Amino acid sequence: MKSFLLLCCVLSASFAYAQSSADEKAVLDIEKQRFDAQITKNYTVLEQVLSDDLIYNHSNGNQDSKQSYIQSIKDGKQRYDAIEAQEQKVRLYGNTAVVNGICQIKATNNGQSINTRLRYMDVYVRKGSQWQLVAWQSLKLAN
Questions:
Q1: Cα distance between residue 108 and residue 76, in whole Å
Q2: Cα separation of 128 and 95, whole Å?
Q3: Collapsing DSSP states into helix, strand and coil, what is residue 141?
Q4: pTM score > 0.70 for this model?
Q5: Which of left, alpha, beta for 124 (phi over 0: left; psi -120 to 50: alpha)?
Q6: Pairing mode, if any, of strands 130-141 and 50-57?
Q7: Do you know which Pfam families this protein is assigned to (predicted)?
Q8: Which residue stretches of 41-116 are H helix?
Q9: What pLDDT tens digit does each residue of the chain (143 aa) get?
């Protein structure tokens, strides 16, 4: 009986770890899709990945909603040329994932070229089978 209980515990822990690893990978995949969509102006992907109640706090102190952020890309106020993830760590809390990372951004913001490193924190929530970004904050790092 003790062997059976031990086997059940080991199998349960193994399943939980496998699920956790799969969720971490799914969140990192969504993060990459979002970065690519920002560069290629793929509004369909941005509409899917960004939650309707997104709050994005930019490194310059400005704040955007999903709608205003996507509109800034459409209007050409915000243009991304490259986003290179340098560090990423995912922590899972049930249906919520927190991503802490560092990335190199090459972009144009209101006509001004930007080439900077950012430390960022993203909060994703799983809604059904889809992970969506609900909060996003970045901070400029010294180059």
A1: 9
A2: 9
A3: strand
A4: yes
A5: beta
A6: parallel
A7: DUF4440
A8: 43-49, 66-74
A9: 556 544 444 434 444 444 578 999 999 999 999 999 999 999 999 999 999 999 999 998 999 999 999 999 999 999 999 999 999 999 999 999 999 999 999 999 888 999 999 999 999 999 998 999 999 999 999 86
CA dihedral of residues 31, 37, 40, 43 (deg, nearest 10): -170
How many domains is the chain partitioned into structurally? 1
Tokens read off for 25: 């990978």
Asked whether 123 and 98 are in contact (CB, 8 A), the reply is: yes
Q: Both tokens of residue 43? A: 């509004």
Tokens matching residue 99: 């991503």
Summary count for the chain: helices (H), strands (E): 3, 6
